[in-house]
Amino acid sequence: MFLGVTATVTNWDAEGTSCSLVLSENPLVGFVELPDTCHGLYYCNILCGVIRGALEMVSMKTEVTWVRDVLHGDDAYEMHVKLIKQVPEEYPYKDDE
């Protein structure tokens, strides 16, 4: 939303715990070209951290990885999001005190 792009959610698994987010465009790579020596580098890996951090704020432990990247010659940007566990909320105080 803050980048001005829309993600398409696809490839849900049978348990409903993992899916893929496909971005048709990515404003972070407007003027980026990866040299041949950097094929293992995912330039926009910060987006994986942003999504993982946002989901941790709502008590979801996740694993977010890149699947496809236009900088590596793919046709779209795709991230895979997998729910590891739902973390129970902990309150720093008790209601009865």
TrEMBL record:
SUPFAM superfamilies on file: Ligand-binding domain in the NO signalling and Golgi transport
GO cellular component: endoplasmic reticulum; Golgi apparatus; TRAPP complex
Cellular compartment(s): Endoplasmic reticulum; Golgi apparatus, cis-Golgi network
InterPro entries per the UniProt record, alphabetical: Bet3 (IPR016721), NO_sig/Golgi_transp_ligand-bd (IPR024096), TRAPP_component (IPR007194)
Chief location bin: endoplasmic reticulum
Source organism, top-level taxon: Eukaryota
GO biological process, one term: Golgi vesicle transport
Keywords: Endoplasmic reticulum, ER-Golgi transport, Golgi apparatus, Transport
Family of this protein: Belongs to the TRAPP small subunits family. BET3 subfamily.
The protein's name in its UniProt record: Trafficking protein particle complex subunit
Source species: Platanthera zijinensis
Source lineage: Eukaryota, Viridiplantae, Streptophyta, Embryophyta, Tracheophyta
